[in-house]
Amino acid sequence: SFSVGGYARFVPSNLSDKAKKWFLVSLSMPKVHFEFVEFASVTDFLIGINAYFSAPGIRPFIPIDRYRGFLMHIAPLTSSDEPIVLVFLTNATLPVGVIEFDATTKQYTKVESISRPDKLYFVVVEPKFSTIAEEAIKSFEELKKRQSPEATS
Known about the structure:
By secondary structure, the chain is of the alpha/beta class. The protein is built from four helices and seven strands; from the N terminus they run H-E-H-E-E-E-E-E-E-H-H.
């Protein structure tokens, strides 16, 4: 029987048993709650991500999504029944590829490789489609609309 919380009526009949199980799991998953940290500039965005996610002596590269006019770093905060995702974003752009960032001079450049231990590195990718980014942008835009002066008057 393929019933999870009464969702069986939504399962397409042409799916295999395995696909039906996955379909039901996706229907029964809780809604993701997004928390946002918005930055005014690319430089502030890069500094902010570094402040949250790098450790002293470790110079990892940090992934950034370039999607629908936004730069985003998406990080899960919990894996509980009510997932919370932290989204750093700015309405700006960077070239796709490896970005080298010098926090001291606040300068960034696109490079071919990660080579210097005194620099910070970000890998900018541009997915064709991302459900988590779509949901994050939708949630962010709804939040901004509710906070606008027109919405409060």
